[in-house]
Amino acid sequence: MRLFTALRIPGEPLISILREIEQIPGIKPVDKESLHVTLLFLGEVPESVVPLLKEGLSSMKFKSVEVELKGLGVFPSPFSARVVWVGLAGNLDPVRELRLKQEGLLRELRVHYDKKEFSPHVTLGRVKSRPPKELIELIDIYGSTSFGKVKLESFHLMRSILTPKGPIYDSLIEVRGA
């Protein structure tokens, strides 16, 4: 089972920028219902471990926090862009603390996870080929724009099912914050 932990993001604040991204050829936009911040990507996890993961994650304390959706960017760089994203700004300490707690649980359960440095962002689209000039122009326009604030009130253990039309995300558990 392909799993990750995430904070779901409501699509409403990002509708206008998603519409602009949809107009750029060569970029596959993310469905507004699938917007999230990946905390930890676990990859393929044996089904036998999932109940232990659910139990451990369900008992985690999480402090709800309001963050700002700010700045349009790309990974890894504008001229070799693969991912179009909006960043998070504000008090991200509760988000980082939650990620550290989750890492501790995964180490305890001996579950492998991607140890990449955490860069909180919401993926808005994937670049299929060479980045079009319209994307570079969009980044110039919206690079430091605030798209509004959202309250992060829960996190999820998500299953990702890969399909030819794109991934399908399914929440296995939702853990509400305080």
UniProtKB/TrEMBL annotation:
Reactions mediated catalytically: a 3'-end 2',3'-cyclophospho-ribonucleotide-RNA + H2O = a 3'-end 2'-phospho-ribonucleotide-RNA + H(+)
Residues at the active site: 36, 121
Ligase as UniProt keyword: yes
Motif (HXTX 2): 121-124
Superkingdom in the source lineage: Archaea
Residues spanned by motif HXTX 1: 36-39
InterPro entries: Cyclic_Pdiesterase, Phosphoesterase_HXTX, RNA_CPDase
Keywords of the record: Hydrolase, Ligase
GO molecular function, one term: ligase activity
Limits of the Phosphoesterase HXTX domain: 12-85, 105-169
SUPFAM superfamilies: LigT-like (SSF55144)
Annotated EC: 3.1.4.58
HAMAP family recorded: RNA_CPDase
Function description: Hydrolyzes RNA 2',3'-cyclic phosphodiester to an RNA 2'-phosphomonoester.
Annotated family: Belongs to the 2H phosphoesterase superfamily. ThpR family.
Protein name listed in UniProt: RNA 2',3'-cyclic phosphodiesterase
Organism: Sulfodiicoccus acidiphilus
